[in-house]
Amino acid sequence: MLEMRPDCECCGVDLPADEAGAFICSFECTFCAACAEAMDDRCPNCRGELMDRPTRVGKALMASPASMERRHKA
């Protein structure tokens, strides 16, 4: 199951699990759309392709909440 990280690792912007706009690589590194575009849709950590992260809503989000651990590297 996806960890659904709460923020962009690059700029720290909030990325709620129930909203579109987050991009992830196969290791679940998470970035906002602006940072993903600036990185040419390549993860700076593993060089893997960044893809749209699916959303998690309603009962699924309640049963499996998003992570609260922020990953932004200041």
UniProtKB/TrEMBL annotation:
It comes from Sphingobium baderi. InterPro entries: DUF1272. This is DUF1272 domain-containing protein. It comes from the Bacteria. Pfam families: DUF1272.
